[in-house]
């Protein structure tokens, strides 16, 4: 479709996506899924704070977390079929055996450890909700430090020197685990108030007494 930049903005926009209808449809579907997830996480956090955790329903809490992680993993694995996710971001000539190897290595490692990321989303909201924002800030700092440290040190250590395009697959794996290590570091910080205050229902710092939150 020929572009006429004097037309209305919506017509110009349509002229750009006319030849990319499939990609545009995929983009819209992904946007809807992300929006749904953004709505689900606060709801899960609210239910956790008001129902599951105060009533000591820890098993239900962790089962829900695992289900959410499993859904994310399934979506990620579906995107790896025929390198679908690469075709979304790269032109066809850029999708090669090498890009598939690097991309799939990253996805398989990260997706297998998504439960740690799911815990961050839920626990972070819970911890902030009980008036412990310093741990949320600390979790973010720990995540940043861990990710930078792993990226700088682990691939080079596994490659036995400078990392290049000829580095062994182990170095690629070392780079891929940067995100999971960052999630685990954030989890470690968030677990402090999660266990000390939420699981033990210790909210004395808020109310000045030993009365449990569920009784309030």
Describe the structure.
The protein has 216 residues and is mostly helical. The chain has ten helices and no strands. It has helices at 9-17, 21-52, 58-79, 84-89, 97-112, 114-129, 133-159, 169-176, 178-199, 204-207. Helix 6 (114-129) packs parallel to helix 9. The radius of gyration is 22 Å and the shape is globular. Residues 210-214 have low confidence and may be disordered.
Residue windows where pLDDT falls under 50 for at least 5 positions? 210-214
Per DSSP E runs of 2 or more residues, the count of β-strands stands at 0
Order of secondary-structure elements: HHHHHHHHHH
Let me know the average pLDDT: 79
Proportion of residues in helical segments? over 70%
Tell me about the biggest sheet? none
Brief overview, please?
This protein is mostly helical and 216 residues long.
Secondary-structure blueprint of this entry?
Layout: H1 9-17, H2 21-52, H3 58-79, H4 84-89, H5 97-112, H6 114-129, H7 133-159, H8 169-176, H9 178-199, H10 204-207
Helix pairs in contact: 2-6, 3-5, 3-6, 5-8, 6-7, 6-9, 7-8, 7-9
């Amino acid at each position: 479709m020929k572009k006429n930049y004097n037309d209305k903005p919506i017509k110009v926009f349509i002229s750009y996506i006319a030849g990319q209808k499939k990609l545009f449809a995929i983009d819209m579907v992904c946007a809807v899924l992300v929006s749904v997830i953004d709505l689900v996480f606060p709801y899960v956090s609210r239910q956790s704070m008001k129902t599951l955790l105060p009533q000591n329903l820890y098993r239900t809490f962790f089962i829900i977390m695992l289900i959410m992680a499993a859904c994310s993993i399934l979506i990620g694995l579906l995107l790896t079929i025929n390198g679908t996710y690469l075709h979304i971001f790269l032109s066809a000539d850029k999708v090669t055996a090498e890009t598939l190897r690097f991309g799939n290595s990253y996805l398989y490692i990260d997706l297998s450890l998504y439960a740690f990321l799911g815990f961050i989303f839920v626990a972070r909201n819970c911890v902030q909700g009980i008036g412990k924002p310093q741990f949320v800030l600390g979790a973010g700092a720990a995540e940043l430090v861990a990710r930078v440290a792993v990226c700088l040190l682990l691939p080079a250590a596994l490659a036995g020197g400078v990392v290049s395009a000829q580095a062994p697959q182990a170095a690629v794996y070392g780079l891929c685990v940067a995100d999971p290590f960052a999630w685990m570091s954030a989890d470690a910080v968030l677990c402090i108030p999660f266990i000390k205050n939420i699981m033990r229902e210790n909210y004395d710092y808020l109310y000045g007494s030993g009365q449990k939150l569920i009784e309030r």
